[in-house]
Amino acid sequence: MSNKYRKVLAAVLAAAMVLGGFVADAASGSGQGGGSLDIVKYPDVFQVVLPTNAGRQFNYILDPTGILVNVGADKYGGATFEPGKTMYFHHKPASGSNTPHYTDVSEPITAYNKSNIDVEIKIKAKLSAPSGITVSATRTAGDTSTDPKMYLALTEGPVSTEKAVTEQGIVATASIASAAIHYKTIYDGHSDMYKNVLKDPAASADEEDYGTFFKSYSFMLTGDCNPGGKWEDLKSTPPSISVVWSIEKMEGVALGESGMPELPDNPNNPATPSVPGGPSMTISKTGLITITGLTADINYRNRLTLTYGGQTTNNLDDDLDLTWYGVGNEWTSAKGGTLKIQLGPSWMNAVKGKSVTATVKLTNGQMISATEQF
What we know:
Layout: H1 3-26, E1 48-49, E2 60-62, H2 68-75, E3 80-81, E4 87-91, E5 101-103, E6 109-113, E7 119-127, E8 134-135, E9 149-155, E10 163-164, E11 170-176, E12 183-188, E13 193-198, H3 210-213, E14 215-225, E15 241-249, E16 280-283, E17 288-294, E18 305-308, E19 311-313, E20 322-325, E21 331-332, E22 336-343, H4 345-350, E23 355-361, E24 367-373
């Protein structure tokens, strides 16, 4: 290499070093970053399949002398009757048959839990006050008294699960396990949310296949009457039965032993008007109480209180003459919605001609009310 070339190369390297040093001394950098949160905002999915009307399933026939086994077909459209029974419930004809059948256990009311959480089913049952008939707390097959007696019970099937229905009314509860194993989490771009949804084939299952994927609970009615009673002297019809069933999630708001939200801290506290834009409450002349605008943050908390005729009646959640609508569908304890409570016939008779104020307490401590002149 010539001396001249070496000098040129040295000059270039020197210039490069100067330039490199200049860039390094002047360089700087900065950056900013934001955080994001990816969660399932509403992880609990409450979805149940529950019959809303029993039709004729709870109609019963008393047959203390056993005549229906032999001649029941003449009156009941050719139906057959299971021998040895004294109380009968109608069953639809078996597949491929046109002949109805009667036995001492009613057709079941079956609920399926399609949720990813456990749920609780609550059943309330009450007999109307019978006239001339003694309601027994146990089966009457071996009863030798001459007083007409009948026994009616809620049951899951086995005799060990029977719970006698009374004139005062009973409440029975049971839990139904979740279908969490059949759920998956997806991202919904339309709502920009993660959601828990049923995955196939459970998601597309027809009702006849629900038992393959979802846990269920069934209850029936059963009963009998004493053959030795003087039923021919009875001058009234047997008592009617009222059965109400509902399902709630087993977690969320604090629940009392009856499965309904807890009592007010002071039921006699005056209620405040509805907050504009917040939950509101109305009561109609037909006895329908409607609470709208409930949300996850401001939700229904307390049992219904009714004030009329100078008296206040609390703890009405277990009253069998009230029907709660929208629970688990239009309203949930987790998300709110619209909750409706219908006063039954005995309540409508009690408040006739009176001014009635209905009051509830919300989860934010607010009490709201509505008044109607009946």
